[in-house]
């Protein structure tokens, strides 16, 4: 009996040593090699350690560990000099020699507004997010999903204006990618919830392994290639048919629309939320209003004028506002050891 007890004790001790020394299991510190010590990172690690501890009163089962992330400006570069989908529309309408504009009063006007904003510093029109959304719906109408995916990825291969050593498709904030890895290792399921076109987001995030069913964004109506004007409820798609984009906007996924889309597509209230702008506040508040579990929300501020194209004064002012709202603030300037990687350098914009 004593021998059996001794063997059991030795096994337990050895198991503990293996767990503590297993070189294949990264520590929290190793997950965040691209971060400086900071309040936001400490808050995230403390939160995750608490809610994943089965003995904690705040324990959250894996099935409910839902995190939502905005895309542009949260883990993809935004200020070079504006959103990827804005740059893409400008190229589509004004530079793509193969594009035939059937609605210039909508598409070309929006594209020119973007070009003037970028090159002349003029202000974008009020409610331009919606003006762009309607124009983008029309600009890519008639493309199959495969054609559109190829189009986005081809443009993403071009050099990101304002930087050397990086394409648009590589413009991820590398420290934020470490957050994805950390959360996944701790049983969280994360979703991209962006104001950008859903299929643009899918094309860009495929490179970092995000599954398409975890991407929510702006949507246009789709239809089958032979459907014509018939409504879907009256039409049966054939085996050889494929889906194409139409020019009808369904939803611009900003502000409260993000909450509605999260509810419809995920079906659960997030416990973690990450964003960078006022368009993400509704999503954050929805998360923080979760009555069942402990929650946290994080806002990233673009306050690094040396390594990125940013307005530090404006970003710091927003940072104070986000703190008052109850969000943790991530400072690109203070908290990130690198933004895009050591081989990337900021430079002046070049226009051909």
Give an overview of the whole structure:
There is one protein chain. This protein is α/β, with parallel strands linked by helices and 352 residues long. It is 40% helix and 14% strand. It is built from 13 helices and nine strands. The protein has helices at residues 2-21, 28-31, 39-51, 84-94, 107-120, 128-139, 145-156, 174-185, 198-205, 256-265, 281-288, 312-324, 332-335, and strands at 66-69, 163-164, 189-197, 215-224, 243-251, 272-275, 296-301, 328-331, 345-346. Strands 5-4-3-1-6-7-8 form a seven-stranded mixed beta sheet, with helices on both faces. It has a two-stranded antiparallel ribbon with strand order 2-9. Helix 4 (84-94) packs across helix 5 (107-120) and helix 7 (145-156) packs across helix 9 (198-205). Residues 4-22 have low confidence and may be disordered.
